[in-house]
Design goal:
alpha+beta; six-stranded mixed β-sheet; 17 helices; 30% helix; disordered C terminus; 28 strands
């Protein structure tokens, strides 16, 4: 059955990105139909907003609703190091003394419902409990969707000029076209729950997001105060660290072990009681190779997800929905819904994501922002701008370049000019094993001291090699220092010398002594 009432735009998914795109397109007078498989409110993680959401919320006519809500106001972010030392807060107001420098900590079940209701108020035809089974293509152009009612008995086809996929991490179009690229570095996982009556600061610090580093710097906890005396508390670390080589895979056991590994969190939650189940998310960092095609667009998590470290998830959802909506509206006015038109926003958006990613990777590399600001006090404003989500200004690249330069001299660097990042370490049969990741080539190196081998994993289409100069400059004087990489059978390779193996452990050992 084909639906007789044909919308100009179909949106798949009613989360923040989908609701934003639908609302802004409807504001321009276009007929928009939104399909959401669940019925709101529903649970979702990602409770902390950052200040740059202000401008999209303003366009959505959501600001007054937010100001009148019971959400906790957020004025700053603060860091606690592995030693338990509390950093100076990054107050957003100090850098920009404006209304937009205050934001909120939200329960996503309520916040997302508000956005969806707001879309309806702006004329969007919202159909909850309706599942999109597939996106229909004619050649390379998306032309419609096949949907199913909540009871599973009725299927129909609906057509539109543009299909906006906001279906979240399942991302129908990304999956159909095979566009997903997993992040080669940010292979993280998270375990979290909620606490009632746990410690919270007062006055303007009551709503601060706190990032607390684990002892040993293997990961970090988020600490997000919500309304109703609830605090969201979760641990983030590499997937291997959290879920491999543990006696128990039970989420509560893993969570409790990591709480013991972070005394600052243990102290804060000791006065409260757990108010929800334990939940987990694993290896969630990815991006699509393109944001749009002929007649289709990806927004929010359907395009990509970065990392929870600086609470950029909702901002990127709102911003991608906003930018995509503007491109769609311009295309509908001009009668052009081609790939080139619908992708016109992608380059600047991806550059913004990359700026946030640089900040995230620097933190995971052990970079000290406190020391950096102490050495370069005139750059504190730029760091604060990045933390509030002002990601789309090219002039911030100068500060990010300084951070990258500082990383080259950081103890995490194995080869001074490459800034390799340690991903994890463990003792296997009494031997120290470490794993490194190259931030640019995307290569992952595993070093095993038992046989002096280095195993190199190189993503497809990412050429990588050790050259004679690199080995020589790191103190190697063998007769044939040029390494050989054999990756003919798989994406993994062993780096060997002509003698059969090449010993780089002296370099690594000298830089990693515990």
């Amino acid at each position: 059955m084909v639906c007789k009432s044909t919308p100009r735009v179909i949106v798949i998914g009613g989360g923040p990105s989908g609701a934003t795109a639908a609302t802004l397109i409807a504001q321009q007078g276009h007929h928009v139909r939104l399909f959401e498989r669940e019925r709101f409110p529903r649970f979702h993680i990602g409770e902390s907003l950052i200040p740059q959401t202000y401008w999209t919320l303003k366009r959505l006519n959501m600001l007054e609703k937010m100001k009148g809500s019971h959400y906790i106001k957020k004025y700053s972010v603060q860091f606690v190091g592995s030693s338990g030392r509390l950093s100076e807060p990054f107050y957003f107001w100090d850098n920009r003394p404006e209304e937009c420098s205050q934001t909120w900590q939200v329960r996503r079940s309520e916040f997302d419902h508000m956005l969806l209701q707001n879309a309806e108020e702006h004329g969007v035809d919202v159909q909850e409990g309706t599942r999109v089974l597939e996106v229909l293509f004619e050649g390379t152009r998306a032309v419609g969707v096949r949907v199913q009612n909540e009871d599973g008995r009725d299927e129909r086809i609906e057509r539109a000029d543009v299909i906006i996929d906001a279906s979240g991490q399942s991302s129908l179009i990304m999956g159909k076209l095979g566009l997903r690229d997993w992040d080669p570095t940010l292979k993280k996982a998270a375990v979290w729950t909620y606490w009632k009556g746990a410690y919270r600061d007062t006055e303007q610090d009551e709503g601060a997001t706190i990032v607390l580093q684990l002892q040993g710097k293997q990961g970090w906890f988020w600490y997000i105060p919500l309304h109703d005396n609830i605090v969201s508390v979760g641990v983030v670390a590499s997937y291997d660290y959290l879920f491999k080589n543990r006696k128990s895979k039970d989420l509560e056991t893993i969570y409790r072990e990591e709480v013991e590994n972070c005394p600052a969190v243990n102290q804060r939650i000791s006065m409260g009681e757990r108010a929800d189940v334990y939940r987990a998310a694993k290896e969630y960092s990815y991006r699509s190779r393109q944001a749009a095609g002929d007649g289709w667009v990806l927004v929010g998590d359907a395009f990509g997800f970065l990392d929870p470290l600086y609470s950029s998830g909702v901002l990127l959802a709102l911003k991608s929905g906003e930018l995509a909506a503007d491109a769609v509206c311009a295309g509908l006015r001009a009668g052009d819904t081609s790939e080139s038109q619908l992708r016109c926003w992608e380059t600047d958006y991806v550059r913004g994501m990359e700026r946030m990613r640089s900040l995230v990777c620097a933190y995971y590399a052990g970079f000290s922002f406190g020391k950096f600001v102490a050495q370069h006090p005139n750059r504190k404003g730029d760091i604060t701008d990045l933390l509030i989500g002002d990601l789309f200004r090219p002039e911030l690249d100068e500060t990010l370049g300084m951070i990258n330069d500082a990383l080259k001299n950081h103890k995490a660097t194995v080869f001074d000019w490459f800034a390799w990042r340690p991903q994890c370490s463990a003792r296997v049969r009494g031997c120290l094993w470490r794993k490194f990741c190259h931030p640019f080539a995307g290569a992952i190196v595993q070093q095993d001291r038992r046989d002096c081998r280095i195993r190199l994993f190189v993503p497809e289409h990412r050429p990588f090699f050790f050259n004679r100069r690199l080995l020589a400059e790191n103190g190697h004087t063998s007769r044939n220092p040029k390494a050989r990489i054999d990756s003919s059978k798989s994406r993994s390779a062993y780096v060997c010398s002509s003698a059969g193996r090449f010993d780089l452990t002296s370099t690594i050992r000298s830089r990693y002594t515990s």
